[in-house]
Amino acid sequence: MIVGYSKKAQTKMALALILPALLIVSVFTYIPSAYVFFLSFKDWDMISPIKTNVGLANYMRLFDPANGFGYSLTRTLVYSLIFIPMTLCLSLFIANRINKLSHKGKGVYQSLFFIPSVTSISVISLVWSYLFNPQIGPINAFLAKLGVSSDAMPQWLNSCDLALPTLAIIGVWQNIGFMTLLFVAGLQNIPKIYYEAAEIDGAPKRLVFYKITIPLLSPVLYYVLFMLIINSFKMFDIVAIMTKGKPQGSTNVILYYVYQRSFQFWDAGIGAAASWVIFIILLGIYMLQQKLGEKNVHY
Amino acid sequence: MSIIRIKSFGKRCLKAFDFSLIIMALIVVFPYIWMLFSSLKSTEEVFTAQLQVFPKIWKWENYASVFTKTFINSIKNSFLILVVGVCLDVVIAFLAGYAVAKLQFQGKAFLFAFLLGSLMIPPQVLMLPSYILISKFGWLNTFAGLILPRLSPAFGMFLVRQFVLTVPNEIEEAACLDGANLFTRIFGIYWPICFPAVTTVGVFSLIGYWNDYYWPMMIISDKNYQTLSLTVASYKNVEGLGNWSQQMAAAVVATIPMIVLFAVARKTLIENITADAVKG
Fold this sequence. Notes:
The complex is a heterodimer of chains A (299) and B (280).
Chain A (H helix, E strand, L loop, with lengths): L6 H33 L2 E2 L8 E2 L3 H7 L5 H30 L4 H12 L6 H11 L6 H8 L17 H26 L3 H9 L4 H30 L2 H6 L11 H10 L4 H29 L3
Antiparallel strand pairs in A: 1-2
Helix pairs in contact in A: 1-12, 2-12, 3-7, 3-9, 4-7, 7-9, 9-12, 11-12
Chain B lengths: L1 H15 L2 H20 L4 H6 L12 H6 L2 H34 L5 H10 L9 H11 L5 H5 L5 H13 L3 H9 L4 H12 L1 H17 L2 H6 L8 H11 L5 H36 L1
Helix pairs in contact in B: 2-15, 5-9, 5-12, 5-14, 9-12, 12-15, 14-15
């Protein structure tokens, strides 16, 4: 509080200062959220002026396997089951190694791993399409050198089984740097005394890691874990550029599903209903984070 | 003594050259190396020598052919969006951040939660209603449509607030006695003191605008308003055989500004990204 201003004057000032932020958040976040809720009860092709009220029909349609929503949800789940553990383990491993380096070395490695986080998704898509290209890409050329026969050559993004894991690998590559950064900061915050005490007691390295590092790192671990969950639900751009849900819908993750239904099949109702289901899932995840975060952070 | 010294020096070297880290770093950086050198290869080399990193003949012409009219125009568009968007983002976040940090007013807790709550909703989830809203505003294929919906004041407000809270009130009160008005106080006192927050918000906003793909893709169909990331991605969608090296050249051009920026702002950026997580 600044001396010399009445509460009324401060309220006026504050509202004037916050107003632009409030306007933006309301118009571009909250109003669309409400609007998509409204749309989820309508049947609308996005063009005609008539929106018919259909009640819960759109939500019921989501449960119909013919509409493929459940399948998209499992695709997102498969993606996150590859993407999250890999990113988590690799970035924790890298951070643990980086933490042992000198200050200068830390900076160099942190920056190198961070570069993918500042690279545009279109550039990432172009480069990785080249790298994974079955005909001219260096990855398959390397596999051929190792003696993989041409019929056994993985088709990466063109294969139903491999397309989504390939995208997950690219996702891991893209996210490692950011998560490493968070882990290094977390590791630096652990007081050295604990490690010294463990050394005096002659504790084996593995035990030190599981009994000291992991529990003391748990707040950061939770933060990273939930960030990764949200990131795997947010995955859209890379699908839109690289695979467009193909081959055979194997990369049709949940947000691409919303896009496809709304802007390719012109079925705004089901797109809106799907958006709301994603909302609810995300909300559940946030609430879980709050709860677990309070309970399981060990000090 | 000298032996011990050599030994410890060797140990230090070994530590810095952590083998597994070097391998990992090479894997992470490899796509960039590949991109850079492939952009200088000739078409035959792309198709025949698939495992060779360095080009035999360095074809700098690839870069000349990248700078078409559309490409240059999209760079211009991206820069325009960047300058306007980042300025708006930073100023709006700063004003709000100051207000929630230093002023006492009714409904503060609610407004603060209202702003922060918007962070829980990823913009991609709102693509359908946002698109409809923007088309109702008549903002399809306009700069306003590209810039305004992508402003994200909540994160910046929070970061600025954390910084402003650490500044003692006495400074502002002294300025008050000297007759400084609200805006002089905000931009004359808090802005310079909280400059690390300003840079972090700015750089995040900058990366966001520069790399944004999904939103321009939704609302831009007119070539004159294409952003750089749209133009670069459109090369992928053409699937033209043989122009891989040009594609890579375009990718290099689109990547360099962000890497330079990151190199410059690295220190503040890393500190501020991590502060949030470590405080929990």
